[in-house]
């Protein structure tokens, strides 16, 4: 019975059956944890480092740990490997019990995340399935198909060959060693040593495109493009470097230089995303988004995205609340040690604001002066708009609170 098919007529059931029947065994020589990445790389002629990085990235995004544990379960250990302690006690016939338990626990947690609103986990699992399908349909004949559970043939010692066998009837005569290759002349060796190695263009082109992508993300951050945060800069570069690693892996030409670039980009992206979504507690009672030196631009689109506070030590601070959708009351503090502060509120918002400036011009909803305390402005339409409570303080520089 035929299974589902794709638009080009590919039988998905046949692809799945072929992938299962030719799945590789996990070899001890490939082991870092359980040998899953090495087995997949050997099966589809990929760089093992690329496969390991893919598992790490998937683990960060969601679902990678489950995928690795499933690979540990479905890919058997190579029977040609020397006996190990777990096999000596009779557990070599299947996966260790702890791996099965861990797979069940991680699987329940992962499915819960995927169905509980964390869409990125569901997307990561779907992308893993698509990746495996593409690998098997495009590279099934390039790697080394596995024969799980089958021991390789063992060479039989036929003994010493006979001294004379004109007809070649004695099997022992077939065991003569192959002739040694002709020695390479010194001139040929010297010529080969002097010949320059051809360097590929994939690595420099990928790095150049990664810099361009990071620069575009930085421009978007400076222009205040909605939703763009500092984490976008390493993330954009990481996306390009990851694409370069995939292309290098598919071409069978690993680029370890890109790997060394990808590792710090992954860390910067993860920590940047965490810092963006988690307010910073400085220990002095201030909680929110903070910059020591540099400009800070924030354009929240919902009331929930508004941080409890925004602060810069030295630099301009721009907070645009005019695009914030109506919702719960907003309360936030805006501070700068030295630099211009500009806060824009919706035209119809009910605003209560306190402005304090040490040195510089002040425009606090039309009021001027160094200090404007608890100014209530209901807007041109009167009460009934978005409720906003602002405290704006500046050490030196211009301060402006305006309606958008």
Primary descriptors:
seven-stranded mixed sheet
Radius of gyration: 32 Å
Domain module count: 3
Rough shape? elongated
What proportion of the residues is helical, as a percent range? 25-40%
Provide the residue-averaged pLDDT. Answer: 76
Main pleated-sheet profile = 7 strands, mixed
What does this structure look like?
With 404 residues, this protein is of the alpha/beta class. The protein folds into three domains: 12-83 and 93-139, no CATH class; 202-278; 287-403, no CATH class. It has helices at residues 12-21, 36-44, 48-61, 64-74, 85-88, 97-115, 119-139, 186-194, 202-222, 232-250, 256-277, and strands at 280-281, 287-293, 296-298, 309-314, 317-320, 330-338, 341-345, 350-359, 362-364, 371-377, 387-396, 399-403. Strands 1-2-4-6-11-8-10 form a seven-stranded mixed sheet, with no helix packed on it. Strand 1 (280-281) and strand 2 (287-293) form a beta hairpin. Helix 2 (36-44) crosses helix 3 and helix 3 (48-61) crosses helix 4. The protein is elongated and about 85 Å long. Residues 85-94 have low confidence and may be disordered.
State the gist of this model.
This protein is an alpha/beta fold.
How do the helices and strands line up, and which of them pair or pack?
Elements: H1 12-21, H2 36-44, H3 48-61, H4 64-74, H5 85-88, H6 97-115, H7 119-139, H8 186-194, H9 202-222, H10 232-250, H11 256-277, E1 280-281, E2 287-293, E3 296-298, E4 309-314, E5 317-320, E6 330-338, E7 341-345, E8 350-359, E9 362-364, E10 371-377, E11 387-396, E12 399-403
Parallel strand pairs: 2-4, 3-5, 4-6, 5-7, 6-11, 7-12, 8-11, 9-12
Antiparallel strand pairs: 1-2, 8-10
Helix pairs in contact: 2-3, 3-4, 3-11, 4-6, 6-7, 9-10, 10-11
């Amino acid at each position: 019975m035929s299974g589902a098919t794709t638009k080009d007529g590919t039988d998905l059931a046949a692809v799945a059956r072929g992938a299962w029947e030719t799945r590789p065994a996990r070899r001890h020589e490939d082991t870092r944890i359980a040998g899953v990445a090495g087995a997949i790389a050997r099966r589809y002629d990929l760089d093992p480092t690329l496969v390991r990085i893919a598992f790490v990235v998937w683990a960060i995004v969601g679902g990678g740990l489950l995928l690795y544990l499933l690979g540990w379960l479905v890919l058997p250990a190579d029977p040609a490997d020397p006996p190990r302690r777990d096999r000596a006690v009779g557990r070599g016939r299947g996966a260790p019990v702890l791996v099965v338990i861990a797979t069940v626990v991680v699987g329940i947690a992962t499915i819960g995340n995927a169905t509980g609103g964390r869409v990125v986990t569901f997307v990561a699992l779907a992308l893993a399935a698509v990746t495996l399908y593409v690998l098997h349909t495009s590279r099934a004949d390039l790697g080394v198909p596995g024969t799980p559970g089958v021991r390789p043939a063992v060479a039989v010692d036929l003994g010493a060959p006979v001294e004379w066998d004109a007809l070649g009837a004695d099997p022992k005569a077939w065991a003569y060693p192959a002739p040694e290759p002709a020695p390479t002349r010194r001139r040929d060796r010297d010529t080969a040593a002097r010949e320059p190695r051809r360097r590929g263009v994939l690595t420099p082109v990928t790095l150049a495109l990664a810099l361009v992508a990071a620069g575009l993300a930085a421009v978007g951050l400076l222009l205040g493009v909605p939703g763009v945060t500092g984490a976008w800069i390493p993330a954009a570069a990481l996306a390009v470097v990851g694409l370069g690693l995939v292309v290098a892996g598919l071409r069978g030409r690993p680029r370890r230089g890109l790997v060394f670039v990808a590792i710090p980009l992954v860390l910067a992206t993860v920590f940047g995303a965490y810092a963006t979504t988690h307010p910073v507690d400085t220990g002095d009672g201030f909680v929110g988004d903070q910059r020591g030196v540099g400009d800070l631009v924030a354009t929240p689109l919902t009331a929930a995205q508004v941080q409890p506070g925004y602060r810069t030590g030295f630099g301009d601070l721009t907070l645009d609340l005019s695009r914030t959708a109506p919702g719960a009351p907003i309360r936030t503090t805006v501070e700068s040690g030295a630099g211009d502060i500009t806060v824009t509120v919706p035209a119809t918002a009910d605003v209560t604001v306190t402005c304090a400036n040490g040195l510089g011009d002040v425009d606090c909803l039309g009021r001027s002066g160094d200090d404007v305390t608890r100014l209530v402005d209901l807007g041109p339409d009167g009460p009934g708009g978005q409720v906003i409570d602002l405290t704006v303080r500046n050490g030196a520089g211009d301060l402006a609170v305006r309606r958008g």
